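@channel anyone free to eyeball this complex?
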Amino acid sequence: MPYDYLVMGTGGHAFLPGIPGQDLEGVFTLKNLTDAIKIKRYINEKQCRKAIILGAGFIAMEMSEAMRRHDIETTIVYRGELPARKWDPEFSKVILEELNNNQVTFVPHTKPVAIEKGTNSLLRLVTDNGEMDADIIFMALGVRPNARLAKEIGLQIGETRAIHVDSSQRTSREEIWSVGDCCEVYHRVSGKWVYMPLGDVSNRQGRIAGQNISGHTVIFPGVVGAQSFKMFNLEVATTGLDEKAATRNGFEPVANIIWGNPIAASLAKSLPDPRKLGIKLIGDRSTGKLLGAQAVGTENVVSRINVLSVALWSELTLDDIGYIDLAYSPYFSGAWDPVQTAAQILRRKL
Amino acid sequence: MPYDYLVMGTGGHAFLPGIPGQDLEGVFTLKNLTDAIKIKRYINEKQCRKAIILGAGFIAMEMSEAMRRHDIETTIVYRGELPARKWDPEFSKVILEELNNNQVTFVPHTKPVAIEKGTNSLLRLVTDNGEMDADIIFMALGVRPNARLAKEIGLQIGETRAIHVDSSQRTSREEIWSVGDCCEVYHRVSGKWVYMPLGDVSNRQGRIAGQNISGHTVIFPGVVGAQSFKMFNLEVATTGLDEKAATRNGFEPVANIIWGNPIAASLAKSLPDPRKLGIKLIGDRSTGKLLGAQAVGTENVVSRINVLSVALWSELTLDDIGYIDLAYSPYFSGAWDPVQTAAQILRRKL
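replying in thread with the prediction:
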């Protein structure tokens, strides 16, 4: 098929552990709308009562809430110690509590070995830590780029194994653009091209490619790594680099966690769930700049991470953030926002 | 009394219209904790049934909600056409609707002439537009700086009539600092010293003065004019300059309003009050930079204005904001946040 230009949006696919039985009926990935439709149909047809989720990232967390809403007994099986390992262990413990509070069983330090047809339930998961029954099993082990076609036609592939693009979303071949979960994206904080398969990033890339193809020169300014999810009564969000990534990228990270009120202290007691807002900031010792942030809580968590995302975008220092001007009213924060307090405290540690 | 240094925190006072009867029992200002205590006592003692609020700024809006919560018949009397005139008339109309929905009567184009003792009620308000009964009358007509003492000892007073300070909060006399509602603050967008008597600003000024007095050189980086209030089911917020202020400060403002969803469209229907989020952006034609923003809606309004406040702080352009990286999840926004959409649309109008 002859073409003037081509946009490669081959997407990503769910990572599979490569264990026997992973293709049995009742084992699902969580990537596409088709997955969702198949899952709904299967749950209804088979009257599923028990689910196992492999993995403990944000998709696993969201899926556990979806299962509990359908009153399905839910177990998360994970090779590590705590869920949501992108976040600080102090926050992951809050997330684990939230799972427990909502009757989700979390089984740590456990790897799947095989999936078999079950006897008590429809399926049986064999692990290095015993066997478990389930009617449905979800693979929430991460996403990998679909870059095979790109590789076959000789496009440059990045170190992340995703398609290499420039800031106009053009690949190494002049007439081919690429957008979405198959390609890399520029991370403004690390200065590296990374793989970050997120829906909002794909949307922005698509618009950038479209504008460039239609003759407008528009540069995709990159991402700072902002992301969030909701699970039960918790909001969880992060932006920028964690300490490990910061060190790997040549920074000298210093971090601190504070627990504050999502709204004015005098009103916080009246919240339906008056748990504190936890904010972790990571700063760079040599420049005093913010490098990253994480937050967890019941209210106004994502809004704080968005403020910090713009701060990262603009390379603000902790000095700036400590005195940043926000729209104060007791219903939305204290006269000192936890973001300001966190920045001031971390500043003194640098 | 001899001293090494002095901090002048003389505060502000409520503006009074200078009409006969403004000092009658039952007429209150809304500035201090003492006002609140007196008001509560008076309402209880006198079994107040009817209140009139003079003024239609954010304090008047907040007071109207407080009165309605006590089931007191409430009327707002205002010389202008619409409430909350800091905001675009399109948004002020939404605010007016919210007043009406909550049984607050709004009387426009009306000036107070006198207050008298009443017959049907405890008080009578005489206006250029007829008389009205009330048991309690509130003066919410703005705040003025208490700068008399400063003037008397010869401190420099700014054009705003508030005390002039520098970025360390020092007045024109080396050993005197000043903070709070009596002094000016630097506005980063206009580059001018302005009067902005807000609680969070005072807090920041206080900390800056304290640090400088104790020997640390710390600069107050100023404000961008972020502010917000809640009234009934509405969040209302603004930051930066409106078109008038922008023109006055030598910019060439171009503005646009969009109405979007506070969370993903697919989930917005499930909100208790699924009204749209309105965002107005004001940009500068010659530089492409953001100059100001306003927003109104039922959810996640202040969080958007905070994002835009950091953008203003960092002098971001509409190009930047159109592709800014925020922590997307359907529970907190669409894959395109209304902030991004608003910036892209305004960008095309420049």
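from a first look: Chain A touches chain B through 50 residues (CB under 8 Å).
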